[in-house]
Design brief:
The structure holds four protein chains of four kinds.
Chain A (H helix, E strand, L loop, with lengths): L4 H23 L3 H21 L3 H25 L14 H28 L15 H15 L1 H23 L7
Chain B lengths: L2 H4 L3 H21 L3 H26 L5 H31 L13
Chain D lengths: L5 H14 L9 H24 L10 E5 L14 E5 L1 H24 L4 H20 L3 H10 L1 H11 L4 H34 L6 H4 L8 H18 L8 H8 L2 H24 L3 H28 L3 H21 L3 H32 L15 H14 L6 H14 L10 H9 L1 H17 L15 H19 L2 H17 L3
Classes of the chains: A mainly alpha, B mainly alpha, C mainly alpha, D mainly alpha.
């Protein structure tokens, strides 16, 4: 079996970065730091996309999650800036432990599922299937545009309507006045 | 068996997505800061996106429907964040706090 | 000419129904309000029935063994057909005659008697409903239609007993009557369905599955051959339960005395003459069936004898005039059962006919008395009414003589029963019969002497009785006096097998029964007219006055036991079933505290619950999945 | 016959419920009410047209229509179709539905005081859901409408009810929802089994209705139980019935009428559609067990009803008892009992609607339903008492009224049943069941007497008799009660061929 060691290293690099920054983002004291870590996560995930051949998705990911969304967050942080960031660190309610164990069980059972399916179905080729064909960039763009404008045209139109609704909705939300009675 | 670790296949991506999803979920539960909760939700969305693209990359080389839908999903995520932030800001105006403990409006 | 009448005899059933609907709808839509119109319509419908009955009867006299049947399918499922229709034979035409004539006279009576009542139209509507159902019952071609109208007469009786629904006692009495009758209906329906099952399942003739009366002999034979003795007896007893309830026989006899809460014409029509006789009528109809088993026949006779004895015994000490008559009715019905059960078929039925006339007359007389004393029913406050109501007193006396078996029609019918009993060698029953006859003569003349002789004990001067009331009772008196003449004709008209009373040893029973009756009258005369003090045996008196405490026992059964069972069930339902389903009592404090603590209102805790739930379900699913896969591998599916 | 559209029949109430929100209606409650009533009567007439052109000898489906989306069926890849069809039973239920909804709308006038627009649109939504359930020819379409019915019911009970109505509505929804989860599981099992055996993805009733010989019996029984749990909640069968008294007590009168008259029938209808038509062997296997449940249903609830102090609860428990008779009829497995069961469904629909209307009328005037507080109302409400007496007598199964025929046929059928004597002594069961004649008379007479008879309380001496629209509702019901009691063949003729067809599947 031939192993593309470069690809392996790239994958583990991006994956490690993703998980590291994700944890960092959740466990950092300052909200700004956690936002920065989140941006790192999004960049790393874009790299993961790249290893899968989804260059276009990676670019969009960076554009939206790497740049646009953080700007929104930064604005929100500026509006709601609180000196006492440490007070809003992480909860020590029972739910911390409950969710920790719950997610642990969930995680383990899913891993178990994966192992079971590996051991049961290893003779089926799709389990160990590689990316059979290296995706041609031209093909990819053609496929995506076909998807947008031919196959899923209805969904696309609906989505544009959704965006319109969102624009209207946000402006309506912005127009809501503060209640005077307390 | 050891080559399973190095030979990057579909399962590596799936497990990565699973871990990221769990972290996101955990963050959404334990974070005290409202904005951090939103960030955690974004992690969960991203994890789902990874699954989309991984499945498409491994099985659907011709039509790449997973790629298309991940794009939809990205846009939906962005929109969701925009609205969530708008609502959060409105709530913040009345509560003057980012602490989730203050937002127990589910209780009547 | 007669053919036209007989072919259209179903209109006799439908005419009263039509009048009933007319009155009810007229009231509802405020169209018909006039009392005169209502009573005229009712009388017309009944008179119509009388004419038809008379014409049919005359035709039947000319052509013996004539049977007319006509029906249409009410229900048809596969080859199971349930017919409704009319069936005319000798027995039903006699019953039709009795029902329509008494009904007509009672309606004539109530036109005056009930005139001042606010609910006059409702009363007449109910009377029409009763007419409809009773005539339908009499003309039923099969047991199913019989059941249908059986229930309908029960309902009309319920409505009429509860006519003055504002009186709690009347309402309770109505309820009691309905429930008791329902117990009988339960038996009748179960028995009917059972017969129907055996015939439908085993015999070739599916048309017999609805138990047509025209073929009852065959059905009895089939049933007897398809079942073993125990099942046959059970079916017969179930059917008999219907008769017992309707005719107020021993275990279910308590409702009849309470039913006297209804208006007096109703008592005269329904609870003495017609409806309560339906039980006897049904036994006569199913006689070929019952007579296949001696056990069943003896059962009928014994129940009849018990009822006759205890009810006569109760009647001796009652103080309410109508209650005396009610227990008397009860006891006479018992005699009819006794007669039928002991093989005196014709005698029993003839007693039914004669009893219908004189008992309804008695009730109508009591109605006049009660009316003239402004609703006073207690005989201790009456007395000497012969001076104020001479015609009523005369009629009452005639009826008393008749019912005691001294003279007139009652004498004939009782003599027929007694000779029938002797002929079939039922000497114990004959002795019982004579004891009943003694008590009958005693209590009837007791009531006569207390009410009509002696001094008046009331406060207000009694009212005169109006013309219409007098007219009805006079006509009935005529019937009572002269009906005995037709004894021989009746014997030939209605017969079962070769059951004709032999006249050789007629003298003995006549002598015995008449002397017994005279003895009873003499005792009553001595005690109540001459006011001789006698020592009342206290225990016996109390037992009789309280009716062996059977009523109290039933009250206890219904009010305490039944209610307790219901409450236990309701408790189980509310706390056990409901509680088990909703997590063993969500209402308890501890759990609700836990739940309220869980509901912090923080969305993140809800998320945590979701995670836990998700994790548990995933873990379980994984476990199950593994198990299934292992099973699949072991069994070699893959 | 081709001009009649099942789609219009089913979806026109939905459209009507949307139309009610147009500016034309604004908040003009009189206009809303009149249009609703007019529409409902038109709908009733339209459903009667189906009856006119119905051919009862056609044993299959008489009216069949399928919606296609751009040339493909509803969910093409999974083989789900949006197909509707009417057979004899459906037709009967459809007509009953539109009849009862019309009467419920008329009765709404005096019961609904607020949020008229929302109320009427919810009622129409409910009507669409119910009609969809009765007409669906696809398992998952059936399920969709079954669940859709919960939404309006939740609002109808929770918004316009009295007492502890929010909790009752929640209880109702949760119960039904849990039941339908189990039902969905059963449906999925059936669907996937069919798929794995024959390789066709289909959920069409007629496509999977043939029971194959290799369908393992334990799987059939398992699926039957799963489905039965769902239907048992709705029907209701005893251990799962406790939502019903609460829901009835707190629901407004028209909703109670609909709930008792139609929604309970959905359970029985589901049993016929799924358990009897699709899984006959499984059903037959379960019959001895179901017979015992039916008996408990009949006798036990009759006792419970006698102990209740609330008028509506008495009627509610009597409903459960009556549905027990339906279940008994379904378990007899012969045509007599089966037709009796379906007839009893209709009969109970009409009678219980009337009884709830009666109780509602009393409640509006006296603001109480406690038996101890009432009495002697016959003095001031003679017309209502007349109606009450007729309805009560019909309810206890008086001959020549509608209640008798169903009960009688069920008992007769039970006695003639081909069910194995060793596993279930059905003759003894049926004799026990006949005792309901006495028990039902006991509780119904208690209701009647404590309400209308005896002395009247001083405080009720001023209340009025029924108004005209209440009169219309009750009178229509009484007409139906009397007509079908005297001419039962008019119903039995419609249903007999299809019932015979269903029974042919059973191997008896």
């Amino acid at each position: 079996m031939e192993i593309d060691i470069l690809k392996t290293l790239i994958f583990y690099g991006f994956a490690g970065a993703t998980l590291f920054f994700a944890l960092l983002s959740i466990f950092s004291f300052r909200i700004l730091y956690s936002l920065l870590s989140a941006v790192c996560v999004f960049f790393a995930v874009a790299g993961i996309y790249f290893t899968l051949g989804a260059d276009y998705n990676a670019v969009i990911q960076i554009a939206i999650y790497g740049i646009a969304v953080p700007i929104l967050f930064v604005l929100a942080i500026m509006f709601t800036s609180d000196k006492l960031d440490k007070k809003t660190y992480i909860t020590v309610q029972p739910r911390f432990f409950f969710s920790f164990f719950g997610l642990g069980v969930l995680f383990l059972s899913l891993i178990y599922l994966i192992i079971i399916s590996l051991s049961l179905n290893s003779n089926i080729d799709w389990v160990m299937q590689k990316q059979a064909v290296f995706i041609n960039k031209y093909q990819m763009f053609k496929a995506i545009s076909d998807g947008f404008f031919v196959d899923y045209a209805l969904a696309f139109e609906l989505f544009s309507v959704l965006l319109l609704i969102v624009v209207v909705g946000i402006s309506t939300l912005g127009l809501i006045k503060e209640k005077t009675d307390d | 068996m050891i080559e399973l670790l190095f030979d990057i296949g579909l399962y590596h991506y799936l497990i990565l997505a699973l871990i990221l999803f769990s972290i996101g979920f955990f963050g959404a539960i334990v974070a005290k800061n409202m904005l951090k909760v939103l960030i955690s939700v974004e992690f969960m969305l991203t994890a789902v996106n990874i699954n989309f693209i991984a499945f498409a990359g491994f099985f659907d080389n011709i039509k790449l429907s997973g790629f298309v839908f991940s794009l939809f999903y990205l846009a939906v995520g962005a929109v969701e964040i925009a609205i969530a932030l708008a609502i959060f800001y409105l709530m913040f105006r009345t509560k003057q706090s980012v602490n989730t403990e203050d937002y127990n409006c589910g209780k009547e | 000419m007669e053919g036209t009448f007989i072919n259209n005899i179903y209109t006799v059933i439908l005419f009263p129904l039509w009048v009933f609907l007319l009155i009810i709808l007229g009231r509802l839509l405020n169209v018909i309000q006039s009392r005169r119109v209502i009573s005229l319509l009712t009388l017309a419908s009944t008179l119509y029935g009388v004419i038809f009955a008379v014409v049919t009867f005359l035709y039947m006299l000319k052509t013996p063994d004539y049977v007319y049947e006509n029906s249409y399918a009410f229900l048809r499922i596969e080859n199971y057909t349930l017919n409704f229709g009319v069936f005319v034979d000798n027995l039903s035409v006699i019953m039709l005659l009795v029902v329509t004539t008494i009904s007509f006279l009672v309606q004539l009576y109530s036109t005056n008697y009930m005139y001042k009542d606010r609910s006059f139209p409702r009363f007449f509507a109910y009377l029409n409903l009763f007419n409809f159902s009773m005539i339908g019952l009499v003309l039923s071609p099969n047991l199913f239609q019989n059941y249908v109208f059986w229930e309908l007469v029960g309902v009309s009786s319920y409505l009429l007993i509860g006519f003055w629904y504002k009186k709690p006692s009347a309402a309770d009495a109505a309820k009691k009557a309905f429930l008791m009758n329902r117990i009988g209906d339960f038996g009748l329906l179960a028995g009917t369905i059972a017969i129907s099952y055996f015939i439908y399942r085993y015999s070739d003739e599916a048309s017999l599955a609805t138990v047509p009366f025209s073929n009852i002999g065959n059905i009895g034979d089939y049933l007897y051959s398809y079942t073993n003795d125990a099942v046959f007896v059970i079916i017969c007893v179930l059917l008999l339960f219907g008769s017992f309830a309707k005719s107020a026989q021993f275990p279910l006899h308590t409702w009849l005395a309470d039913a006297m809460e209804g208006p007096t014409p109703v008592s005269a029509l329904i609870h003495s003459a017609t409806m309560v006789a339906a039980g006897v009528y049904l036994i006569a109809r199913l006689y070929p069936l019952y007579s296949l088993s001696d056990g069943v026949m003896n059962f009928i006779a014994i129940i009849g004898l018990i009822t006759a004895l205890i009810c006569a015994y109760f009647a001796i000490t009652q103080n309410d005039l109508k209650r005396i008559l009610a227990y008397s009715t009860n006891s006479q019905l018992g005699l009819m059962f006794l007669a039928l059960g002991a093989g005196a078929y014709t005698g029993g039925l003839f007693h039914l006919v004669t009893h219908a006339y004189f008992k309804s007359m008695l009730f109508l007389c009591s109605g006049i008395v009660i009316h003239s004393l402004a609703h006073q029913q207690d005989i201790r406050f009456m007395g000497g009414l012969r001076k104020y109501l001479p015609l009523t007193a005369a009629c009452y006396l005639i009826a008393c003589i008749s019912i005691s078996g001294l003279l007139f029609s009652g004498f004939c019918s009782k003599e027929m029963i007694l000779s029938g009993l002797l002929k079939n060698n039922h000497y114990i029953f004959a002795v019982g019969f004579l004891i009943v006859a003694l008590m009958t003569a005693f209590y009837m003349f007791r009531s006569y002497f207390v009410v009509f002789e002696g001094d008046f004990k009331g406060s207000n001067v009694p009212l005169k009785s109006p013309f219409l009331l007098n007219l009805s009772i006079s006509i009935l008196a005529v019937f009572t006096v002269f009906l005995g003449i037709f004894q021989k004709g009746f014997e030939h008209f209605i017969k079962f097998g070769n059951d004709i009373a032999q006249s050789e040893n007629l003298l003995n029973p006549v002598f015995i029964s008449v002397s017994i009756a005279v003895l009873g009258i003499f005792l009553a005369f001595v005690i109540y007219c001459k006011k001789n003090k006698i020592i009342k045996p206290k225990i016996l008196y109390q037992l009789s006055y309280n009716r062996f405490y059977i009523d109290n026992f039933y009250d206890f059964l219904s009010k305490k036991i039944y209610y307790t069972i219901s409450n236990i069930c309701a408790f189980i339902d509310k706390y056990l079933v409901d509680g088990l389903v909703i997590l063993a009592g969500l209402n308890t404090r501890a759990l609700s505290w836990v739940f309220s603590k869980m509901q912090t209102g923080n969305f993140q805790s809800y998320l945590a619950y979701a995670v836990i739930f998700l994790a548990i379900s995933f873990a379980v699913l994984m476990f199950a999945y593994t198990m299934i896969m292992q099973y699949a591998f072991l069994s070699g599916v893959s | 016959m081709q001009h009649l559209s099942v789609l219009i029949l089913i979806f026109s109430p939905l459209i009507m419920s949307a139309i009610l929100f147009t500016p034309f209606f604004k908040n003009n409650e009189v206009r809303i009410r009149r249009f609703s009533k007019g529409f409902a009567s038109l709908h009733f007439l339209y459903s009667l047209l189906f009856l006119v052109f119905f051919n009862p000898l056609n044993q299959g489906i008489s009216y069949y229509e399928e919606i296609k989306f751009f040339g493909t069926s509803w969910i093409q890849p999974l083989g789900f179709k949006m197909a509707f069809g009417l057979d004899g039973i459906s037709l009967l239920m459809v007509i009953l539905t539109s009849f009862i909804f019309l009467l419920a709308l008329i009765a709404s006038k005096s019961n609904i005081r607020q949020k008229h627009k929302f109320y009427y649109s919810m009622i129409f939504l409910l009507q669409t859901a119910v009609l969809g359930v009765f007409c669906a020819r696809d398992m998952f379409l059936f399920f969709m409408f079954w669940e859709l019915e919960l939404v309006p019911m939740y609002f109808l009970i929770g918004q316009w009810g009295g007492g502890n109505c929010k909790a009752s509505a929640m209880k109702f929804v949760l119960y039904t929802f849990l039941g339908s989860l189990s039902m969905l599981l059963g449906m999925l099992l059936l669907y996937f089994y069919n798929f794995s055996t024959y390789g066709t993805m289909t959920a069409d009733f007629s496509a999977i209705s043939v029971s194959s010989p290799e369908f393992p019996i334990f799987l059939q029984v398992f699926i039957s139980i799963l489905l039965l749990i769902g239907f048992a909640v709705k029907m209701p069968i005893v251990p799962l019935h406790t939502w019903l008294p609460d829901a009835h007590t707190d629901a407004p009168t028209p909703v109670s009428m609909i709930l008792a008259a139609i929604l309970l029938k959905m359970g029985a209808f589901g049993v016929i559609r799924f358990n009897m038509q699709l899984l006959p062997e499984g059903f037959q296997y379960l019959v001895p067990l179901l017979l015992i449940f039916a008996l408990i249903n009949i006798i036990y609830t009759a006792f419970v009803a006698y102990a209740q102090m609330d008028l509506k609860k008495i009627v509610a428990y009597s409903s459960i008892s009556n549905m027990g008779i339906v279940l008994l009829g379904l378990c007899t497995l012969n045509l007599i009992g089966f037709s009796g069961a379906v007839f009893q469904m209709v009969a109970h629909g009409i009678i219980s609607a009337g009884l709830f209307m009666l109780v509602g009328i009393i409640y509006i005037r006296t603001k109480t339903r406690e038996i101890a507080d009432l009495g002697g109302l016959g003095d001031v409400m003679p017309r209502l008492m007349g109606f009450g007496i007729i309805l009560s007598l019909a309810s206890v199964g008086l001959p020549l009224l509608i209640g008798f025929v169903g009960e009688f046929l069920v008992f007769l059928g039970a006695f003639n049943s081909p069910v194995d004597e060793l596993s279930a002594p059905i003759k003894i069961y049926s004799v026990i069941a006949i005792s309901v004649l006495v028990l039902s008379a006991a509780y119904i007479l208690r209701l009647l007497h404590k309400t209308f008879f005896a002395n009247i309380f001083e405080k009720w001496s001023k209340i009025n008799d029924i108004t005209n629209h209440e009169f219309v509702v009750l009178f229509a019901l009484i007409l139906a009660v009397a007509f079908f009691g005297v001419f039962p063949m008019s119903i039995l003729d419609i249903i007999q061929p299809i019932l015979a067809n269903i029974l042919e599947i059973f191997k008896i």
